[in-house]
Amino acid sequence: MVTHLYLGVIIVAVFATVANAEINVVCEKDSVKITWRIPAEGVPHAARLFLGNCMASQFKVLPTGEGEAQFNYKFVDCKFTKLLKGKKQLFQNELTYRPKAKGQPAAFVYPIECVYKRPEGWVPPFLNPGSGLSEGRGGLVFHMALLDEQLTGIAKTNIIPLGSFMPIWAAVEQKSHQPLLLLMEECLATTTPELQPNSQVHPIITNKGCLAESMTGNSKFLPRYHSSSVVLYLQSKFGLGQEVYIHCKLVAWDPQVLDESKKACHYVKPDMRWELLDDPARSSICSCCDSTCRSRSRRGVDAESRGFSYNSVLGPLIIVDPSDSNADSMSKSPL
After folding, report:
1. CB count in 10 Å sphere of residue 59
2. Please, what's the b/e burial string for 263-283 (b: 16 or more CB within 10 A of its CB; e: otherwise)?
3. Its domain of life (predicted)?
4. What pLDDT does residue 234 have?
């Protein structure tokens, strides 16, 4: 008991010196340089200082007896987290002092963040399946998937806390086609992978491209990175405790020909109006979302030449109560 108490006093004392240390952070183009100066009392414990999972790249004892730990690492090292927020690109990590064995919580945490302007024209590769040269006509490949919270890749879990957001990505791989606009004409949630008469149905997008969930919740379409893909930022407020499947009719369409029947509209609550995702100045196209949106009269051949459709299913997604401690054990790979 006395030994444990003695060690506890040492840890607390060292923590106090580390917490009052001087930390200097310099963000460079693709790396960071950090200088962490600690009092003399902390020098014997320098091996317990970390940036993410990296130890100091250099440590020296100064003439004053103080210690100086230097961390010079690229953002691809040390488990940096990359985030995209609007026009900014962020790299985040933590400096920690970990006096206890691996797996135990840190005694001291100092957040590290480097913020940069998002590179012009940068598009996450998975959001731009239509990149490259296009000539003539050919087959189309449609995709639909659940993204991670940072919108940087495909989600690694299908467990969704109730009330949180599900970024649902849909795209068309254009191959030899000229640029096409990917639209979600209709989406609904069910408890079955196939639509059946007894399926529980929850409408998400109706009326030929109107995001109904944006009126009753906080769902919306995110700004496009590329015309051939779209992200539906869907709030999970249905299907608690059940397997949920998202059924969508995807349409690849001529971006120059938008009308009441071919559009992506969401409701802007503060302004109490519908907005067209691809050109807010033409949001009058969305006014029919409060009634019935109809197609313009066109010859069948003309309409067929302008677009192609595909019925896609995403799931199962499992909506859970955030307080449910068993939620993680329910994980399955999304289809």
Report:
1. 17
2. bbbbbeeeeeebbbbbeeeeb
3. Eukaryota
4. 95
Average pLDDT in the chain: 81
Q: Could you report the per-residue pLDDT of 293-317, keeping only the tens digit for each?
A: 987 655 443 444 456 888 999 989 9
Q: pTM here?
A: 0.63
**Is the peptide bond between 316 and the residue preceding it cis, with omega within 30 degrees of 0?**
yes
The torsion region of residue 175 among left (phi > 0), alpha (psi -120 to 50) and beta comes to left
Sequence-separated (6 or more) residues with CB below 8 Å from residue 9: none
Q: For residue 88, what pLDDT is reported?
A: 81
What domains does the chain contain, in order, with CATH numbers?
A: 2-117 (2.60.40.3210), 125-330 (2.60.40.4100)
Distant-in-sequence, close-in-space partners of 114: CB < 8 Å, separation ≥ 6: 25, 27, 32, 75, 90, 91, 92
